[in-house]
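Exercise 7.
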Amino acid sequence: MDLYSPNISRIIDDWIEEDIGKGDLTSSAITKKIGKAHWIAKEEGIFCGVGIIKEILKKIDEKIECNFFINDGEKFLKDQKLLELNGPSRSLLASERISLNISMHLSGISTYTKNIVDVLKGTNINLADTRKTTPGLRIFEKYAFKCGGGINHRMGLYDAAMIKENHIAWTDNLKNAVEKIRLNTPFTTHIIIEAEDMKQAKDAVLAGADSILLDEFNPELLKKSIKELRELSTNNSNRTIRNDLIIEVSGINPINISNYLIDGIDLISTSSSITKSNWIDFSMRYIN
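Solution. The predicted structure, written as tokens, is:
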């Protein structure tokens, strides 16, 4: 994640404008010019937000000094001190809620992701995210997912072509659909086709998909299907000169993910890290 990109800079500016607006009405009550504070974790988890917090603080007041005792992706324990702040008291107060909110949210995503990734240890299966993200926060939430040990799926509609259920319903022929995408996009375009049953999966492979997404397949069906689909892909003349077929599985309740540690699955994709995770509770405490 490039914190210096104009897009990210604008988003952070929006956060500051949303909370501070024309100024903190309580700031006139503050008489102490310089303050010191630290963040304490009120529960354990995986941290995310070092660079983002630094950028928020810099934008609010370059005089704020920040010393972190943790890096993104590292585990912290309950009551652990995460960082220390020193600078103009009014600026510390103005930055408190914005920086805490985004870091608690992102650390929640990283923590939830790490718990699932730990279940996949010892396999060749990667955990991938989805496009089911909070509008305006996608790049941050996907970064948090990576900090938890997952990998990023496509960032948007522009960096991979995915033919999903509704596309299939409105497409006359899968093979023609793949050919049209190949014709109208760069040769680097990766084409993924979603399948809800074995027939659709075979059709997707024969159409020349680079990846197939097997949605809501039960473990027994997956065990029977994966070898057949890979053999079909190897012998398929419609595939361009590319790497082996990538097999992705989705529609799994994270509680049941241990049932899907099946040889031949490359990816398990989930939106749950972002849609179901809870914020991790941090507290900013002032030091006299």
